[in-house]
Design brief:
Blueprint lengths: L2 H16 L3 H37 L2 H7 L1 H24 L14 H13 L3 H13 L6 H26 L2 H9 L1 H21 L2
Helix pairs in contact: 1-7, 2-5, 2-6, 2-7, 2-8, 3-4, 4-9
Protein name: LysE family translocator
Subcellular location: Cell membrane
Organism: Cognatishimia coralii
Length: about 200
């Protein structure tokens, strides 16, 4: 494995992180509604699960999905239903005002929320497998694989910490509070659509 492989992997990873999706929506909403700590903690959960999918891809989980399609189908349906459930809850609570200090979610709950959102998308392991297959040689060592996973984790943490820092400013939070109902319902609509798409995608 060469350093150019890591650069190519990180460029692809950054593009994936910045693309609209459940993880991005969860990170943005947590940072705006709960401040830096909640945004960062949700991002940490997202990062840990994303890196875990990469680790599983390196260990050949995509091959297991090929051998046992029902396992992938089960995970996909469960994940889609979870995203739809989040969308429904977000829509229902759109008019609920935040308390002056932000939301009351604990750090543990915030971390699990992030973890669950990325766990809800088993397509991530297939994406990771395709990216890894294109970028890295097939004979990389176990040490190299561990480095790729650690690198993935660090890049995700840095990105989500940056999002939380930018979006937890007083100006960003005030703007969110003024438009909370509309923004939450837009987020709910997008999240629900992503869940339905995952449910129907073949």
């Amino acid at each position: 494995m060469e350093f150019t492989h890591i650069i190519a992997f990180n460029a692809t990873l950054l593009a994936a992180i910045l693309s609209p999706g459940p993880a991005m929506l969860m990170s943005i909403r947590a940072s705006l509604s709960g401040g830096f700590r909640q945004g960062f903690t949700v991002g940490l959960g997202l990062a840990v699960m994303a890196a875990t999918w990469t680790a599983l891809a390196l260990l050949g989980l995509d091959g297991i999905f090929t051998l046992f399609p029902w396992a992938y189908l089960t995970l996909k349906i469960a994940g889609a239903l979870y995203l739809i459930w989040i969308a429904v809850q977000t829509w229902r609570n759109a008019r609920t005002p935040l308390n002056p200090e932000g939301t009351t979610a604990t750090q543990g709950k915030s971390f699990l929320s992030g973890l669950s959102v990325n766990l809800a998308n088993p397509k991530s392991v297939l994406f990771a497998s395709a990216v890894l297959l294109v970028i890295f040689p097939q004979d990389i060592t176990l040490v190299d694989k561990a480095f790729v996973v650690l690198n993935h984790l660090i890049v995700e943490i840095i990105c989500y910490a940056g999002f939380a820092l930018l979006l937890s400013t007083p100006a960003a939070r005030d703007s969110y509070l003024r438009a909370k109902t509309v923004m939450d319902r837009i987020a709910a609509g997008v999240m629900g659509a992503l869940g339905v798409r995952l449910l129907l995608d073949r």
